[in-house]
Amino acid sequence: xxxxxxxxxxxxxxxxxxxxxxxxxxxxxxxxxxxxxxxxxxxxxxxxxxxxxxxxxxxxxxxxxxxxxxxxxxxxxxxxxxxxxxxxxxxxxxxxxxxxxxxxxxxxxxxx
Amino acid sequence: xxxxxxxxxxxxxxxxxxxxxxxxxxxxxxxxxxxxxxxxxxxxxxxxxxxxxxxxxxxxxxxxxxxxxxxxxxxxxxxxxxxxxxxxxxxxxxxxxxxxxxxxxxxxxxx
Lengths: 112, 111
Fold this sequence. Notes:
The complex is a heterodimer.
Chain A: E1 5-7, E2 10-13, E3 19-24, E4 31-37, E5 44-50, E6 53-57, E7 64-68, E8 74-78, E9 87-94, E10 102-103, E11 107-111
Chain B: E1 9-13, E2 18-23, E3 33-38, E4 45-50, E5 55-56, E6 61-64, E7 70-75, E8 84-90, E9 105-110
Parallel strand pairs in B: 1-9
Antiparallel strand pairs in B: 2-7, 3-4, 3-8, 5-6, 6-7, 8-9
C-alpha cells in the first residue's frame, strides 16, 4: 500500500458528459501526476501539479484539466467525454526533491 | 516515446531467480533507470531505481552495465505473486518529473 488513494474506483459515463476524478497524495508528498492507461498499453503521462500549479503536460487536449489543493490532493477533470477516454486513470504522488512516484489504485472509467 | 526496449514476455519457475533485461541505449548521463511492476490492472508498484551503481533492496536487485546502455532487474526467488507486467523506465530529466512507460515485460511465474 502506498498511501495514495483515488475515488471513485469505477465510473460509467456517456459520450459528451463531464467527469471528475479525485486523488489524495501520500503524506509528505507535494507533487501529483496523472496518467491514462488504455487497455493493453502502458500508462501515458497527462500532467503534473506542484504547489497548485501545472508543472508539465503530456500530449492531451485542453478538455483534460486538473487542480491541486493546498493539502496537495488533486482532481482530474475531463470534459466532452469521448469513447476513447475509456481507460484506467492513475495518479501518482511524489516529493519534488526525492522524485520517486508512488501510484494509487486507479479509477476505471468506461465511456458509452 | 519510451527510451527503453524490453522483451514482451518471459517465463520463470517458482523459486528460481527471474532476470528481466532492458535496453536503454540513448540514456543521458543524468537520467535514472526506474523499475515498476503492475499486477492485473492495479496501480504500478515501485520496485527500485538507479543511476550508475548496482542497487539492492528488499524486493529486487538492479544491475546497470558500465556504459549504462542496458540493465537487468533480478527477483532472487520468484513466487507466483510476482507474476506481473514489469516496466523499465528512463526518467526524463528537467523541471517535470514524468515517467514515460513502454509496453513492459509480462513475467509469468510457473509453479
